Amino acid sequence: MKNSRNSENRKVTAVILNYNSSGDCQKCVAYLQKQTYQNLTTIIVDNASPDPNEKVALKNIECATGAQLIFNNENRGFSAGNNVGLREAVKCDADWMIVINPDVELRDPEYVSYVMAQIEKWPDAAVVGTDIRLPSGEKQNPMREVTPFEEIFWPLEMVKQKLGMWDGYRAEDKTGYCEKVSGCCFFISREYVEKANYLDETVFMYCEEPILAKSVVNNGYKELYIHEVTANHEHYNHKKPGNSASKMQIFLKSRLYYIQKYSGYNSFQIKMAMFSRNLQYKLWEKQMK
User: Fold this and answer.
1) Which of 3, 164, 184, 247 is deepest in the core (most CB within 10 A)?
2) How many CB atoms lie under 10 A from the CB of residue 266?
């Protein structure tokens, strides 16, 4: 990827999208401040958090750390919220941005420096992810996309999960170009977002990763996985209550959009996948009643 600045002086901006997670956000920013990479700034975008205490807590973080703080008037989803931060970062001359969830911790102070040095070696990379670990030790990167067969015959995937035969759609764990990386923490280039007109805001949440992966390829770039450094995804929000049927419906709406616009399936596969996923949607819809 062409850039007149080398890895040591390229400006990197971390974009943290906050939603009722100021406590997590404070930890995330604290780890970012410990990074040895010199040209690193932070933007916090609050995605219209309904908790009135969030604004005060985030302003305290801003005062204590110097992070830039933006308040969205409405919550239009993950991609739309992050785009606010990405556009501000580009406006402030960032070369690369880190889209990072509030519950992700970059405990290695050399994390950003290492990734930026590696990016120099992989010129086609527009999106870069690293090793990511959950508290259980489970890996979240690198990822692969489901095959048309897996898409259409999703009940078989559920059976494999029950039998412990499911691979979690993980790819080979080695540094190199890959199909897809996790959306909880990834680097994204200014060159790519300007060419692609930023992240696709059509989906509110879910399926952002496969949409981004296909968009990267469609725009002539690649995604890169770096094995040697680790981000810790504490996944605090998994403890919060939520309606699983409602979440599944949102996921399936997003998935149907992905199938139609981005999947690259042939016409027959698209018809079969749409039929199968619509059936799945109807089954979850019944659980809502």
Assistant:
1) 184
2) 10
